[in-house]
Amino acid sequence: MLDILIKQAIVPDRGIFDIAIKEGRIIRIERDIKEEARHTIRADGKIAIPSFANMHTHISMSLLRGIGSDLTLMDWLQKVIWVLEAEFVSPEFVRDGALLGIAESIMSGTTLLMDMYFFEEAVAQVALSAGIRVGLGFGILDFPTKVASGPEEYLKRAEEFIKTFKGEELVFPVLCPHAPYTCSPTTLLKVKELAEREGVLIHTHVAETKSEVEGVKEKYGKTPVKHLESLGFVSDRVLMAHMVWLDEEEKAIVKERGAKVLHCPESNLKLASGIAPVWEYISMGIHVCLGTDGPASNDNLDMLEEMSLMAKLQKGYSLSAKAMDARTALKIATENGFLACGIKAGKIEEGYEADLILIDTQKPHLQPLYDPVAQIVYSAKSSDIDTVICRGKVIMERRELKTIDMEELLHIAKKWREKITGFMREKNMLYF
Ligand SMILES: CSC[C@H]1O[C@@H](n2cnc3c(O)ncnc32)[C@H](O)[C@@H]1O
Ligand SMILES: [Zn+2]
Q1: Does the C-beta of 297 come closer than 6 Å to ligand 1?
Q2: Which ligand lies nearest the alpha carbon of 179?
Q3: With bands split at pLDDT 50, 70 and 90, how would you rate the model's confidence at 46?
Q4: Beta bridge partners of 19
Q5: 178 Cβ closer than 6 Å to some ligand 1 atom
Q6: What pLDDT does 146 receive?
């Protein structure tokens, strides 16, 4: 007996097929599958594509969405976000923010999140009950916060987190040193050593702004990637978010070492950081994945929108319509993310894990339908996503979340809005 049988889906570049899912995997893709299934989904007029892998986010920052708009990164962090995080970040804040952010992620077709924040046990708990995959790392900084007194304690928390979650199926631990401007060489070397010992990925921010590059150069005599390379930090286990400002030598280092780039175009635009030359990275053979960054600097977790923006930005920036075609954009937003995490998903193919979405094309803006991939990248909206399946489990069907209570969510968001605006009013931070 099959677990799920999807009937008559449009499989891009193949045709109309039935998709059979069993024990978390796609086991058959055929014109007409007759086998019985516990759950049959009619997918007439719906396109089946892999679900998205949001490879860089701070999901619980959904509770800070809409605050601190129209600032550059360092003003945004120092004048607003770090002040609010110092007051509010707690296991409860992280859990509630994760619930809101994970609901939004599922509703926009994402089944894998790579998250960096504090109290990630709370994110793990929400992800497990929501049925979504998450790579989680307890953020590591050099300066004290109410979360930890300094790098030693952050590292200890990160190590404990790895020990707790290693071997879980939906949750996998990673190490998250924040950035070369907030972590000393000693901290970065300890992270590298721990990552090698535990066999986990490292997820960090690198070369996000011009001022970061200037600051790191002033402090260490080298630009960020060269600085990291001089520490022996750059390797194929490192996922580097942003990577907007790299010189030619740095691009060659990334390629040579096999480090991955986590591109976050919308956050880079909103924080006025710049545009990463992703078309160059791709032509060099660098592995590029896509992320939204946190929902407070984007200001959403919509990977469809992110993918569309990425493709159009690269064309506009390079003045070449070939800089990023729709199929490459879709691959970066799906397959490349799963691959970077060692997960065999991201393709609608037999033997692949069943992480997929169905997109309803019976909408004026998706008709007439000629080229499903191009029309998903350039015309679709996340509200067209009808069904989401993660590891062979249906977590949204006909836009109804199966694992999260929507009413509870709205109540939680309201509760935090009141608390946070109250604090901002008291501290004269309220500007809206
Ligand atoms: C160490 S936990 C994560 C830490 O990162 C902050 N953050 C959120 N977005 C960004 C960004 O784009 N660049 C750098 N740092 C960012 C977040 O507020 C947490 O403090
Ligand atoms: Zn970030």
Answers
A1: yes
A2: 1
A3: very high
A4: 6, 29
A5: yes
A6: 85
Q: Is the CB of 81 under 6 A from ligand 1?
A: yes
Residue whose pair of structure tokens reads 């976000």 in the numeric block? 81
Ligand with an atom nearest the CA of residue 54: 2
What pLDDT shows up at residue 316? Answer: 98
What is 161-220 written as a DSSP string? HHHHHTT-SSEEE-BEE--TTTS-HHHHHHHHHHHHHHT--EEEEES-SHHHHHHHHHHH
> Span 32-43, mean pLDDT?
98
Find out whether the beta carbon of 267 lies less than 6 Å from any atom of ligand 1: yes
User: Which residue lies with its CA nearest to atom 14 of ligand 1?
Assistant: 205
Query: Domain coordinates of the chain in residue numbers?
Result: 2-50+354-401, 52-341
Please give the sequence-ordered ranges of beta strands (E in DSSP) within 36-173, or none if there are none. 37-42, 46-50, 52-57, 110-117, 133-140, 171-173
> From the CB of 217, is ligand 1 less than 6 Å away?
no
Check if the beta carbon of residue 357 is closer than 8 Å to that of residue 389: yes
Known binding-site residue numbers for Zn(2+): 56, 58, 205, 293
pLDDT, tens digit, 9 for 90 and up, residues 185-240: 999 999 999 999 999 999 999 999 999 999 999 999 999 999 999 999 999 999 99
Write the pLDDT tens digit of every residue in 375-408.
Answer: 999 999 999 999 999 999 999 999 999 999 999 9
pLDDT at residue 324 is higher than 90: yes
Instruction: Please list the residues that pair with 17 across neighbouring strands.
Output: 9
HEC states along 223-285?
Answer: CHHHHHHHCCCCCCCEEEEECCCCCHHHHHHHHHHCCEEEECHHHHHHCCCCCCCHHHHHHHC
55, 59, 77: residue to mutate for ligand 1 pocket, most atoms within 8 A of CB: 77
**116 C-beta closer than 6 A to ligand 1:** yes
Q: Which CATH number fits domain 52-341: 3.90.550.10, 3.60.15.10, 3.20.20.140, 3.30.160.20?
A: 3.20.20.140
Which class in CATH covers the domain with range 2-50+354-401?
Answer: mainly beta
Q: Which of 83, 118, 191, 205 to mutate to test the pocket of ligand 1 (most atoms within 8 A of CB)?
A: 205
Q: Is the pTM of this model over 0.95?
A: yes
Question: Using CA positions, which residue lies closest to atom 9 of ligand 1?
Answer: 294
